[in-house]
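Hi R.,

As promised, here are both runs. First protein below:
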Amino acid sequence: MYFQFHNQMKKMLGQLEKWIEQAEAHAKAKSFDPAVFVDLRLAPDQFSFVRQVQNSCDTAKFAAARLTGKEAPGFPDTERSLEELKARVRATIAFLDTVTAADYEGSAVRLITTPRWEGKVMTIFSSGLRETISLHSGLLTISHGN
């Protein structure tokens, strides 16, 4: 799972950081506040950009943590600038850098419990996760199989 999940997540987060840098450069070239991007949505029914970046980072760190049995770092959802979003992406990549291929040994059959809403939990075998990482609306998503 290290090569299917881990390396792809790091690559996609690195690309996300480059997109944020391009947004900053665009704002500077057009002389407007880059913080405008933080609350923008591609469509009315989508999360704002800040929440999509937060979710992308959380998906990557929690997937790695749950597949390896490590504790994921906590990041408060307080980002209000593109610079803060880049820092979150970098912090997520830094956490992923602490996880090795050896940490993923046995992850294909690991029992994973994830917290849900209202105090409930969901427990699945990691083999129930479809090892698919896709680029959706430019951000990281992990598809869950049956």
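And here is the second one, sequence first, then its structure tokens:
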Amino acid sequence: MSHQQDLNELIRALQKVDTVVVQDCWWTASTRWADIVLPATTTVERNDISSGGTYNINKFYAMKQVVAPVGEALDDFEIFRRLAELCGVELGFTEGMEPMDYVQAAYEKSSAAKIMPFEEFWEKGVVTLPTPEAAHSWVRHGDFRADPVKNPLHTPSGRIEMYSATIEKMNLPDCPPMPKWLEPGEYRAMRRRVRCTWSARTRTCDCTRRWPTPSRCARPMRCRPASRCSSTRRTP
């Protein structure tokens, strides 16, 4: 839900689907639209590996499990293993391997395995790959900066463009040919509807005249008695 450019279009599409299944570790907008939710583990509830660093991504990290899965949460591998079992293809999915086997297999196929064996890597928690000397002086679009004519960019003009003639020809009202602030329609609707009622007996917030920011309303909300706040009541 959060990454879709047009949420209204996505909602209309979801209403045409018979069953929506969402696998997530958090109760998100997407899970609220799901018919079936498969609770997955977070990164601290399973073993995994990750890469990191600056521009060259020259480090591998051992992401070790910190706590046991909470509630009915399962790691991604176990969720799909159970689904594969129901479909009669469990062995085809697991290939006789456990989650930690796949973690090690992924590491063994990386360049880090040539520097440090998996057992040592998992014990130390990190391995750093050597950085080529040329990478220390690397500059983004360096060839273009050195010779723009010989090394043009992949744009119609071959240069850095702040204005797109291609987008201009599309004549889209909500997509101008250059970077520009467009006020979302939700802002206009919220201005008409939003009200701040944190202290109706003493004084009121002027949220009806301007967009309410956290700094304007956070403190009064903290001071509101817990007995009046519906957020203190948790529903099953």
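A quick note on the second one: Residues 196-236 have pLDDT under 50 and may be disordered. Let me know what you think.

Best,
J.
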